Amino acid sequence: MNAKPESSDSSAVVSNYPEGVVTATPQAAIETVTKIANCTKIEDAWALGVDALRQFGFDQINYGFTRFRHANAIGDPADALFLTNHDAAHVKAYFESGFFSRTPMFRWVSENVGACSWRWAHEQRAAGNLTESELRAMDENWKLGVRAGYSIGFAPTSARSKGAMGLTARAGLDQDQVDAIWDRHGDQVLAVANLMHLKLTQLPYPVQRRPLTERQREALEWVADGKTTQDIAMLMEISTAMVEKHLRLARDALSVETTAHAVAKASFLNQIFVIDPETGLEKPDP
């Protein structure tokens, strides 16, 4: 679904195309998605994608993903992945305070799949369809320089997963110019963004809670393989009491009450059966 309003005069869109802003080529986009597909580190996939999107005139990118949403809420923010190349002031204002969830474009990506011009938010405002909270969020975004761009809602892979990306256009570009860029290059932008999303959700990602230790990860992996506490003690060459300690600390780190829930959550967060980014193989047990 692409929610960008159709222009009544296609020549107006073409004439407003900002020459020189877009430096990307179809071949470069293909090369980028191939490189992203082969990344073994989340930092590398993110950097490649951000650089590619910058070549289409989108200088600042926000990305969020959760596997624990309830209705249109993201669940515990500590379990969500947030990535951005905005400055520290924007990060503090946008993510840490939960500001992002009050924007009209957050509502759109929560309810839709596809790309949406930010023109939609201005049209909704003019029609009186935004809440007071959304109106304030739009005004705050304007002060932060977040004025023209596109938002993308990614297709969920489960009933509780959701990913989205906000593309802020380069300073000096207005929404008419951004829409003109999208008319010519939107398919390429979506190809890069979709591949970024798919890759980022496959790799282990940092969350806002303490990470599992190698021994906690190993104990959970053996549980996932159906081993008993006694089996794990033999395999890890430690006492059953130490196995229980590793599992308890893993449950604490993941904020869950049962080991079964810990295994499921660690799996959702890509924190067990982790691939070594240097070798491309499963990390060896210590």
**Count of DSSP H/I helices:** 12
Low-confidence stretches: 5-11
Helix content: 40-55%
Secondary structure category? alpha+beta
Strand content: 5-15%
Q: What is the distance, rounded to the nearest whole angstrom, between the alpha carbons of the first and last residues?
A: 47 Å
- Taken in chain order, the helices and strands follow as HHHEEHHEHHEEHHHHH
Mean pLDDT: 86
Strand order of the largest sheet: 2-1-5-4-3
Global Rg: 22 Å
What form results from the Cα inertia axes? elongated
Query: How many runs of DSSP E, i.e. beta strands?
Result: 5
Q: Note the main sheet.
A: 5 strands, antiparallel
Describe what is shown at a glance.
The protein has 286 residues and is an alpha+beta fold. The chain has 12 helices and 5 strands. The model is unreliable at 5-11 (pLDDT under 50).
How would you characterize the overall build of this protein?
By secondary structure, this protein is of the alpha+beta class. The protein has twelve helices and five strands. The protein has helices at residues 10-15, 26-37, 42-54, 88-96, 104-111, 119-126, 132-143, 175-200, 214-224, 229-236, 240-254, 259-268, and strands at residues 58-66, 81-84, 114-117, 149-154, 162-169. Strands 2-1-5-4-3 form a five-stranded antiparallel β-sheet, sandwiched between helices. A hairpin with a 7-residue loop joins strand 4 (149-154) and strand 5 (162-169). It is elongated. The termini are far apart.
